[in-house]
Amino acid sequence: MMQYSRNTIVALASAAGRGGVAVLRLSGAGAAAALEKITGKSCPAPRYAARRRFYHPQDGGLLDDGLVLWFPGPASFTGEDVVELHCHGGRAVTDSLLAALCACDDVRPADAGEFSRRAFHNGKLDLTQAEAIADLVDAETLAQQRQALRQMDGALARLYDGWRHDLIRSLAHLEAYIDFPDEDLPAEVDEGARAGIRSLLQAMRGHLADGHRGERLRDGLAVAVIGPPNAGKSSLTNSLARREAAIVSATAGTTRDVVEVHLDLGGYPVILADTAGLREGSDPIEAEGIRRARARAETADLKIAVFDGASWPALDTHTVNLVDDSTVVVINKGDCLPADQHQTCPTVAGRPAQVISVHSGQGMDAFLSALTAEVQTRLEGQGSAPALTRARHRSALEDCADCLSRSLQAPALELMAEDLRLATRALGRITGRVDVEDLLDVIFRDFCIGK
Ligand SMILES: Nc1nc2c(c(=O)[nH]1)N(C=O)[C@@H](CNc1ccc(C(=O)N[C@@H](CCC(=O)O)C(=O)O)cc1)CN2
Ligand SMILES: Nc1nc2c(ncn2[C@@H]2O[C@H](COP(=O)(O)OP(=O)(O)OP(=O)(O)O)[C@@H](O)[C@H]2O)c(=O)[nH]1
Ligand SMILES: [Mg+2]
């Protein structure tokens, strides 16, 4: 019971485990007192580091020798009083310091995402910026890092709040006319509101029709490696992953389960799936593998179709049938092709095919560049518009667009105004400008402790 009334939170802000230096962070009204209690000295000047020894508040035992920082609220990350302890990064040191701090008045361990949640409540961040912090911590490639930084800087918040502001203005105009019913509504007011809604709707639809590139950049582009058995799909996967992720053997039908590897292709995140070779009638386990291979091919953002150069010019028809304009075609085992085939530029189902050899390295650089270019066009947008990065934003925008298009059909001004109010609310939920208590647990649940 006592635990839950404590309101100053503490957590390890750096990664758990052994490390050179660890950072513990406190936020709340009791932060300064806790620091004074375990150091026996007053807080240093705001935002200046000072060296302190840390002692257990009850038994006085020495716990560490480190640095401290004091950020008085409201000019802090959370908007509350914040204290940081930079200590030696070992299990015993951080555990004993956390225990010592929790023995101080009002201090308790933080929940996941609680620091960022407090920053949101205190107006330091909107929800898209808080989500961007989580994305930045999770970013594995440069392009993901850039997207998260842009969102953290408020690019998405400005776009959505700008739209919301426009809507509120249209709504205010409409409501002014509704409140004065005896005045005739001049045609230009009605038309002006409609034109505004139409152009907003167009901007919103353009933003929604982005091929999910922001969401894909966040999650990684799904690429499936498909082809006949023994073509070298697993060999190619291992070569791209630079490790032996999948079993390679001369036996056709080696791969059964889908083997996933995460790649960084020129800064872009890719989830590459090696799959079972496509062929007819085999044992039930292999058949299940082939079913999974086809399912992956179906849902992939991009496919790499690998043909076996050793059987050239015969091409596996199961694979040819899956080649479409989101397929990069390669003919592997170029080292086995007859010499006169090396110079020609073959095509498969109308797509240019690149001759490669995983064994000799022939054509691999050109293939990698072509693949990276395909990935880039699917993840990188044109111009400077910030990308939609989450399904949560997409569904709110879709709700908003539905309300807007309904408002244009509304048979009465009052109903039009009501639709605009609902549209404004849907937009407000993205940045957290309206009541979003119901959303907060979902959003902050996935944060790490200490964020
Ligand atoms: N040691 C340490 N490093 C860190 C953080 C931290 O909390 N501690 N951060 C935490 O995630 C990030 C930096 N983000 C921060 C954002 C705002 C404020 C801050 O004090 N804001 C005040 C004052 C603004 C100013 O003077 O520039 C404010 O917004 O009012 C501090 C850190 C990354 N590095
Ligand atoms: N000559 C030659 N052999 C290759 C090349 N790439 C792969 N191989 C060989 O081809 C055989 C099959 O390779 P895998 O990578 O297991 O083929 P796969 O397409 O994954 O096969 P399944 O999993 O059975 O569908 C192995 O013996 C590889 O060493 C290449 O570039 N040249
Ligand atoms: Mg394989």
From TrEMBL:
Keywords: Cytoplasm, GTP-binding, Hydrolase, Magnesium, Metal-binding, Nucleotide-binding, Potassium, tRNA processing. Its cofactor is K(+). Its EC number is 3.6.-.-. Binds 1 potassium ion per subunit. One of its GO terms (biological process) is tRNA methylation. Its main location: cytoplasm. (6S)-5-formyl-5,6,7,8-tetrahydrofolate binds at R25, E84, K124, K451. It is an enzyme of class 3 (hydrolase). One of its GO terms (molecular function) is metal ion binding. Pfam families: MMR_HSR1, MnmE_helical, TrmE_N. Residues 220-376 form the TrmE-type G domain. Homodimer. Heterotetramer of two MnmE and two MnmG subunits. Belongs to the TRAFAC class TrmE-Era-EngA-EngB-Septin-like GTPase superfamily. TrmE GTPase family. Exhibits a very high intrinsic GTPase hydrolysis rate. Involved in the addition of a carboxymethylaminomethyl (cmnm) group at the wobble position (U34) of certain tRNAs, forming tRNA-cmnm(5)s(2)U34. This is tRNA modification GTPase MnmE. It comes from Insolitispirillum peregrinum.
